[in-house]
Every structure is written in structure tokens, then in C-alpha cells.
Write a structure and sequence with these properties.
This protein is mainly beta. It has a single domain (4-119), classed as Cyclophilin, CATH 2.40.100. 14% of the residues lie in helices and 39% in strands. The protein has two helices and eight strands; from the N terminus they run E-E-H-E-E-E-E-E-H-E. It has an eight-stranded antiparallel β-barrel with strand order 1-2-7-5-6-4-3-8. The chain starts with a strand and ends with a strand. This is Cyclophilin-like domain-containing protein. InterPro entries: Cyclophilin-like (IPR041183), Cyclophilin-like_dom_sf (IPR029000). Residues 7-118 form the Cyclophilin-like domain.
Length: 120
């Protein structure tokens, strides 16, 4: 699958989607803008649409850098911190990853954004 670009204001970050049905359906809906708020561990916002998912892909926790969908709450999240305590958060479906220097860009951001997501 192609790379996706996430635009936080003037900062562009690139992520690699996985091959899940959720990630593929999300890519088909792009471009999209999602208002997100920073929490210190993620940027999270309500999705403007629902996505299909395989129940086997739903789990608790994340790895820093995950781009996740919360199917029962309808949330989109870019997760960049608190991996070690993330197991207490359920209903996570990983759609892709942000790695290395791209993740460092996200970790340096603060505030709320109208996050623009598009195919790169």
C-alpha cells in the first residue's frame, strides 16, 4: 500500500499503512481532515466515518508510532508516547506506523490541529 502523508499545520509526517482491511478502507476515503487534540501521548480526534475491521485485529495497547482506529468509539489516533502503560486502553486497531525521524516530528508538536491526511 502507498505511503500516507499527515499534515499537522506546517509539519508533514509520513506513515506506512499496513495491509489490514481497515487501513485499505481508510486509504480509499482519503483525503480527509480530522480535528485532533494533543494529549501528551497522542493526537486523537473523532473520525468523520466508520471503517470496517476484523474483530481479530482489535486489541489493547499500542507501540509508539502506531496510527490507530478505535472502532467502537469512532476515534482516529496517532500514538507517540506512554507505550509502556498503553495496555489499559482497549479497542485499538492498528492501521499503520510512523517510524524514526518522522515519529520525532510528531513528538515535538503541541496543541490542536485540523489534521489533513492524504495519499503521498
Amino acid at each position: 500500500m502507498t505511503t500516507i502523508k499527515l499534515v499537522f499545520g506546517n509539519t508533514e509526517v509520513f506513515a506506512q499503512p499496513n495491509d489490514s482491511q481497515t487501513a485499505k478502507a481508510f486509504a480509499e476515503k482519503l483525503p480527509v481532515t480530522i480535528p485532533v487534540g494533543g494529549t501528551g501521548i497522542d493526537f486523537c480526534g473523532r473520525m468523520p466515518f466508520a471503517l470496517p475491521y476484523d474483530e481479530a485485529d482489535v486489541h489493547s495497547g499500542w507501540v509508539n508510532g502506531d496510527v490507530n482506529y478505535n472502532p467502537h468509539g469512532g476515534w482516529f489516533a496517532v500514538l507517540y508516547g506512554d507505550e509502556e502503560h498503553s495496555g489499559r486502553y482497549g479497542d485499538q486497531v492498528v492501521m499503520g506506523r510512523i517510524e524514526g525521524s518522522e515519529l520525532a516530528k510528531v513528538q515535538s508538536l503541541d496543541g490542536d490541529f485540523d489534521l489533513r491526511i492524504e495519499l503521498a
